Amino acid sequence: MIRFDNVTKRYPGGHVGLDKTSFHLHRGEIAFLTGHSGAGKSTLLKLIMRMEQPTSGSIWVGGHDTSKLGRGQIPYFRRNIGLVFQDHQLLFDRSVFDNVALPLIIAGHTRHECAGRVRAALDMVGLLDKEKMNPTQLSGGQQQRVGLARAVVNRPPLILADEPTGNLDPKLSAEIMQLFESFNQVGVTVLVASHDLALVARMRHRILTLDQGYLVNDQEVR
Ligand SMILES: Nc1ncnc2c1ncn2[C@@H]1O[C@H](COP(=O)(O)OP(=O)(O)OP(=O)(O)O)[C@@H](O)[C@H]1O
Predict the structure, then answer these.
(1) Which atom of ligand 1 is nearest to the CA of 44?
(2) CATH 3.40.50.300 residue ranges for the chain
(3) Which residues does the UniProt record annotate as the domain ABC transporter (predicted)?
(4) Which atom of ligand 1 is found nearest the CA of 40?
(5) Distance (Å, rounded) from C-alpha 116 to C-alpha 112?
(6) CA–centroid distance, residue 108 to ligand 1 (Å)
């Protein structure tokens, strides 16, 4: 699903975001990406999304050589990737239902057509009874689960998350990580970046560790 071959990303000014990194994340796999602040986790995720391009090396995602994607193809390519961020980026002037429906509305579906999928996604994250509420009425953990429902609503084959538990306490963080596991159990490929090594280690899945842009460890923990 994701293949990095000897990828280096050097930012303007000379900062090295990622250095000669190679790995392969297979379709249907789940893995965690960890490392200190500035190690290159966000850079790696942005390269997968084609928000950045490598200075050298090649990146394949879902069978696409990302360097060959034309400008017009990129939005369609990104529709295959569900994204989860630390600050969940919800729209606070719309209901939970409308927030989750957003990717489907952008893809051209009507609100009525979306309803089944939106409710299925809310059900997966345990928020079926909250669809009419405004995100401001929900706790931080519930808001993050709305973000997860939005990421999976159009059934992407790949989910990427960047510090999805950054603002949550340990118990809520573990619950969010278990939701990623449940998405993976229905066949979605999942890559989660987190600096919380203890939490990641408890998940007992593959861990990719970055240190100053180098992939220093690729560990299977089964
Ligand atoms: N747009 C940019 N321009 C210049 N340098 C950048 C840019 N983005 C990231 N970097 C540098 O690349 C390196 C890796 O940054 P990155 O954000 O990928 O790390 P990270 O592991 O995600 O860190 P954090 O956990 O703090 O988010 C850092 O040295 C950073 O300063």
Answers:
(1) 18
(2) 1-80+157-222
(3) 2-221
(4) 18
(5) 8
(6) 34
